[in-house]
Amino acid sequence: MHDEFGHDLVKAIPSTPVVVSGWRENLPTPGERVLQLENESRAQEVVRYRLKKEMNKKAEEDWKTAEQRNEKERKEYLENRRKLLDAGLRAGSTLRLIVHKEQKYQKDVGNQKPYVRLMLNTDVDGTLEALLNVFDTYKSEEVELDLVKFDVGPPSESDVKLAKDLGILLYCFNVQVPLGVKRTAEQLGVEISCFNVIYRLVEDLKSRLSNCLPEEVTMEQVGEGHVIKSFSVIVERKKQSIGGILVDWGTINKSDLLRVLRDTTVIFEGSIRSMRVGTQATVFSKSNAFKVVSSASKNEEVGVAVSNDKIVFKEDDIVETYREKKVKRQISWDPPGF
């Protein structure tokens, strides 16, 4: 320790400027207090105390800041909700209206569109607003998204009962569901879905909306063959054209849709009336020495009659069989950022 003239000092009295060298760790910043204690153990004890005091002070300041921010968000949320309730309906197809059962019933009577009813509970106002903004991007005309009720905090038993009466989905985000509410939900058979990642909530909702869509029916080709001989038989006093077909791939089933092409032109599309095989499918015996079958596979020969008596098979006609295939559709909804 030195004075302003560079002289060594062992003691400094008040108002004496000194230069202290040999700090073990970081140099103190201007304005900090410097304490001298009897030993190092006591010094470390004081350091720990002051660090703890400083951390507590910072935590208190952070808490006050968070309180102020939450209060501001809460006021904004309440104001927005008041406007929404006054308006009844916000831009988009999402209805943000807390409704009575009678109103919902009246709404359902003339509504044939499938719908998903939703009740949303979140941890804080900011999360609620974020999710409501996501729901506002939903604009499908095929399935209605009906947000019946939303709030901050856990759902109540009355919410569960309302969900039971109206078939509402209960979604909770970062919310602990009270044990009594869980018990009531189990007794009433009401599902409560809890999430802590917005992406997971949106994916689950998309899946439920998609489940409301009717399946898309497509025609899948399951077999093909060609006519190797054409002939006629009399069935119930009516002349009927028979196509002797060799199956090239797949299967030909009586229940499948049959398409007949001649020089790439479709001349028939409809059902199969009958399928028969004999010792040689291309040679139908007029004594009816044949066997009725319901399907034929690759490299098998089969005689086929169709539902239209005016169709006359010719050699080298191509026959294709198709089967209805139901495909699950996905709702067209991709919120920004998801």
Automatic annotation (TrEMBL):
Residues 106-206 form the Translation initiation factor IF- domain. GO terms for molecular function: GTP binding; translation initiation factor activity. One of its GO terms (cellular component) is cytoplasm. The keyword GTP-binding applies. Gene3D superfamilies: Translation factors, Translation initiation factor IF- 2, domain 3. Belongs to the TRAFAC class translation factor GTPase superfamily. Classic translation factor GTPase family. IF-2 subfamily. This is IF-2 domain-containing protein. The lineage of its organism: Eukaryota, Metazoa, Ecdysozoa, Nematoda, Chromadorea.
